[in-house]
Write a structure and sequence with these properties.
It is elongated and about 80 Å long. By secondary structure, it is mainly alpha-helical. It has 2 domains: 212 residues, Rossmann fold (3-Layer(aba) Sandwich); 73 residues, Tyrosyl-Transfer RNA Synthetase, CATH 1.10.240. It contains 14 helices and 5 strands. The strands form 2 sheets. Strands 1-2-3 form a 3-stranded parallel β-sheet. Helix 9 packs antiparallel against helix 12 and helix 10 packs parallel to helix 12. Bound molecules: adenosine-5'-diphosphate and tryptophan.
């Protein structure tokens, strides 16, 4: 079973990304062959600084490794290290109806967020289909928002199979984790970069402590009174990091009263800080050893290119791009 997923290098990772994507991707490396890539061609659709793109790409590789991705088990690479993906995207584009792309939410969402309409944003699902089909992926772990792109991928793969005869592409399955709850942001909306309400996975202790202390929204219940547990952002976040006993104890303390929000936030910070301790230490080592990170990416790219070359030899032949 081959799992493949891509993550855009669009900035500092937050705990929503961790619990919604990274954690389960890392767990899957034990269950099959994992191919994970940093979607830097995709990120170009919304980013215009070469420096930022380069730094974010390396940072995301570091974050993945710090969070437990094991390069002995999983293949980690940058999308741009396998430029064949663009050729496949072009081939898929030739069978991709405009109507299919016009129906995709992601383009409309990006335009609504103020990005200027361009061809790459519009054609994004064809490149994503190429990402998946190039590596003969069986299952693609993604968030719900990407489900439609998996449908486009299956559609395009089916069209090529029908048109050129036979099993040229496998039809990949989306692996959508229904159990992953949406992680709330510091203001209670969904945690997202676009809302500026994130709690980063990594960062300096003091500012992060301050972020939790100052930014988490609470009501004005006095210290001595019982506090609502329903809809509590502190409790929802604490549950992610604390043991079940610690969590129950905080629920009970809310119900009893006599403990202020300041203390709850302090407890939340400690649990969060402890939860990512190992990852943070690993990250510090990786930052100090950039050659190791580059080697991982270069080994991953070599492995990914082997797969890509096999697919492209087959595809170029069946669609008539070779003649000897
Ligand atoms: P953002 O909303 O911050 O821009 P992305 O859209 O880049 O995040 O998400 C990358 C991955 O992280 C996706 O798989 C997405 O489902 C997951 N993810 C992002 N935010 C959350 C959240 N608040 N709760 C759960 N998963 C999330
Ligand atoms: N579109 C995905 C996102 O924005 C990232 C991505 C690009 C991806 N190519 C992929 C995910 C292939 C899974 C498979 O989150």
């Amino acid at each position: 079973m081959r799992f493949l997923t891509g993550l855009q290098p669009s900035g500092q990772l937050h705990i929503g990304n961790y619990f919604g994507a990274i954690k389960s991707a890392v767990e899957l490396q034990e269950k099959g062959e994992a191919f994970y890539f940093i979607a830097n061609y995709h990120a170009m659709t919304t980013m215009d600084s070469a420096e930022t793109l380069r730094n974010n790409t390396i940072d995301l590789a570091i974050d993945f490794l710090a969070c437990g991705l094991d390069p002995q088990k999983a293949v980690l690479f940058a999308q741009s290290a396998v430029p064949e993906v663009n050729e496949l995207a072009w081939i898929l584009s030739t069978v991709c109806p405009m109507g299919l792309l016009e129906r995709c939410h992601s383009y409309k969402d990006k335009i609504a967020k103020g990005f200027s309409p361009n061809h790459a944003l519009f054609a994004y699902p064809a490149l994503m289909a190429a990402d998946i089909l190039l590596y003969n992926s069986d299952a693609v772990p993604v968030g719900k928002d990407q489900k439609q792109h998996l449908e486009v991928t299956r559609d395009l793969a089916g069209k090529i199979n029908d048109m050129f005869g036979g099993e040229i592409f496998k039809l990949p399955e989306a692996l959508i984790s229904e159990v992953t709850a949406i992680v709330p942001g510091l203001d209670g909306q969904k945690m997202s970069k676009s809302y500026g309400n994130t709690l980063p996975i990594f960062g300096e202790e003091k500012p992060l402590r301050k972020l939790i202390n100052k930014k988490i929204v609470t009501d004005a219940t006095p210290l001595e009174s019982p506090k609502p547990t329903e809809g509590s952002i502190i409790l929802a976040l604490y549950k992610l990091f604390a043991t079940p006993e610690q969590y129950e104890e905080m629920v009970a303390a809310h119900q009893r009263g006599g403990v202020g929000y300041g203390q709850f936030k302090k407890d939340l910070f400690e649990a969060y800080w402890e939860y990512f301790r190992t990852a943070r230490e690993k990250r510090a080592w990786l930052v100090a050893n950039p050659d190791y990170v580059k080697q991982v990416l270069s080994d991953g790219a070599a492995r990914a290119r082997e797969e890509a070359a096999k697919t492209m030899t087959r595809v170029r032949e069946v669609v008539g791009l070779t003649w000897c």
